[in-house]
């Protein structure tokens, strides 16, 4: 169970990075590749390697080109040699249509909005490509023209190729390989290549051997969506939220959350940090609002540490010298968020919401 939601046995997201699978059970020695930071001159062009290490835990033999490609990082985007101008123009036209429709219905009085939406709906039944005409908002017209101009001018500029021919072949090989999964290492310490079977096995162990998750026999998304709608409607009825917020919070086309794992390569047996991706789930929007409302309370808590830099800054302010009888220690919290007691966590959230100076939304925790 994640929060108040049960995880189903088919909800693990096997489609990671390269959507790959493994049939090997043999022990594999990890191979780490650390690219050089300086530029390397190649026959066709200049390619700059990043400093992202690649750890190969799979049975796949990765050559120099594979490693060089992966070391560019998961955010690397290969430059396209050819651009489909027709598709770009079609995408720009669709984007312009969405922008004009948003402006067309923005900030209209409720009764006028309903009326015009109804009229627009009738029009769009006859013509699904209905697009408001330019001229209503000069700023929007200018913005659209500038964006379209920038995009088209950018296509005219000659772009340098950022992959060698061998690296392009390596990319095709990796994309077509259904035996591996590529994941970022925990704490952003590199890229890890894993046998897919081993990846599946460890994720299943994670959700089986703890009290955070429980298996269900069927997809519970529909039931959860009904609960969310009931809560949101009650909040609107009692005046806790506006009609606009009600529309925002009600799930449109929800689906189950997906589970992924990032290997902790610095630890023995390289366990996974499991990540539940809640994007598109029934509770995504209400979780977003709850987090935003709790944010101010959290950052003003005495124990709050934003990041490593903030931690080092706090250490620098500790009075020196440290007393001789002081004991310096550190400890590792295993599964920090899943280990938070649910009842105590809910109570803490309610206390935090009750202490807000500006209460945009009233807590309805039961």
Overview of the structural elements:
This is Reverse transcriptase domain-containing protein. The structure is a single chain. The protein has eleven helices and eight strands. It is 41% helix and 9% strand. Strand 5 (180-184) and strand 6 (191-195) form a beta hairpin. Mean pLDDT is 80; it is low at 1-28, 38-49, 109-114 and 116-126. It is α+β, with helices and mostly antiparallel strands and 366 residues long. It has helices spanning 64-70, 85-105, 110-126, 138-156, 165-176, 196-208, 221-237, 243-249, 284-299, 308-316, 342-354, and strands at 31-33, 39-41, 46-48, 54-56, 180-184, 191-195, 258-263, 272-277. It has a domain at 85-156. Strands 1-4-6-5 form a four-stranded mixed sheet. Strands 2-3 form a two-stranded antiparallel sheet. Strands 7-8 form a two-stranded antiparallel ribbon. It is globular and about 75 Å long.
Task: Please write out the topology.
Blueprint: E1 31-33, E2 39-41, E3 46-48, E4 54-56, H1 64-70, H2 85-105, H3 110-126, H4 138-156, H5 165-176, E5 180-184, E6 191-195, H6 196-208, H7 221-237, H8 243-249, E7 258-263, E8 272-277, H9 284-299, H10 308-316, H11 342-354
Parallel strand pairs: 4-6
Antiparallel strand pairs: 1-4, 2-3, 5-6, 7-8
Helix pairs in contact: 1-5, 7-8
Protein name: Reverse transcriptase domain-containing protein
Largest sheet: 4 strands, mixed
Beta content comes to 5-15%
Distance separating the two termini: 18 Å
Helix fraction?
40-55%
The count of strands amounts to 8
Shape: globular
Oligomer: single chain
pLDDT under 50 segments (min length 5)?
1-28, 38-49, 109-114, 116-126
Q: How many individual helices?
A: 11
Structural class: alpha+beta
Helix-strand pattern, N to C? Answer: EEEEHHHHHEEHHHEEHHH
Mean pLDDT: 80
Rg on CA atoms, Å: 26 Å
Q: Numbering strands along the chain, what is their spatial order in the largest sheet? A: 1-4-6-5
């Amino acid at each position: 169970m994640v929060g108040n939601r049960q995880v189903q046995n088919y909800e693990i997201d096997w489609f990671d990075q390269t959507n790959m699978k493994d049939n090997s059970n043999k022990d594999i020695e990890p191979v780490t590749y650390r690219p050089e930071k300086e530029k390397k001159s190649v026959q066709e062009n200049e390619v700059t390697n990043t400093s992202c290490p690649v750890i190969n835990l799979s049975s796949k033999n990765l050559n120099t080109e594979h490693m060089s490609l992966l070391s560019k990082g998961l955010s690397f985007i290969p430059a396209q040699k050819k651009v489909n101008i027709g598709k770009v123009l079609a995408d720009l036209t669709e984007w312009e249509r969405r922008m004009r429709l948003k402006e067309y219905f923005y900030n209209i009085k409720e009764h006028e909005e309903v009326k015009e939406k109804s009229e627009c709906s009738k029009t769009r039944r006859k013509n699904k490509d209905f697009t408001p005409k330019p001229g209503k908002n000069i700023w929007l017209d200018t913005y659209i023209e500038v964006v379209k101009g920038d995009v088209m001018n950018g296509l005219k500029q000659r772009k340098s190729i950022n992959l060698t021919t061998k690296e392009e072949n390596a990319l095709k090989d990796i994309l077509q390989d259904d035996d591996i999964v590529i994941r970022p290492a925990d704490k952003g310490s590199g890229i890890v290549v894993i046998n897919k079977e081993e990846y599946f096995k460890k994720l299943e162990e994670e959700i089986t051997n703890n009290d955070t998750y429980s298996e269900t026999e069927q997809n519970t998304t529909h039931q959860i969506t009904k609960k969310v709608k009931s809560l949101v409607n009650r909040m609107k009825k009692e005046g806790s939220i506006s009609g606009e917020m009600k529309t925002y919070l009600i799930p449109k086309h929800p689906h189950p959350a997906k589970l992924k794992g990032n290997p902790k390569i610095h630890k023995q047996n390289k366990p996974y940090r499991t990540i539940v991706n809640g994007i598109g789930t029934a509770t995504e929007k209400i979780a977003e609002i709850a987090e935003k409302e709790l944010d101010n309370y959290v950052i003003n808590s005495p124990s709050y540490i934003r990041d490593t830099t903030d931690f080092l800054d706090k250490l620098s302010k500790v009075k020196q010298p440290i007393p001789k009888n002081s004991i310096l220690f550190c400890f590792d919290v295993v599964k920090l968020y899943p280990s938070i007691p649910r009842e105590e966590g809910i109570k803490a959230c309610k206390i935090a919401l009750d202490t807000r100076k500006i209460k945009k939304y009233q807590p309805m925790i039961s």
